[in-house]
Amino acid sequence: MRLFFKSSLLIAAGMVGMTATTAHAQPRTISECAETLAARGFNVIDKDIDDGLYEFEAIKHNQKWDVKMDRQCNILLERIDD
Hints:
By secondary structure, this protein is an alpha+beta fold.
């Protein structure tokens, strides 16, 4: 009975601790995001930060691309630069 009470208390404390903690994605650096693009086959030739977004110019398959990413390296825009 005593073990059951301790186990119940530990489970309840764990549940409260898990729900009270909020998960926030940590912003990544522009270099980390450039590495993400390189892993996808892009050769990054220029990078810039504008309005809180990472902007890249890159080459892939002999075509110039414009790529915009948020600070968690999620691609928001990926288009061939005409």
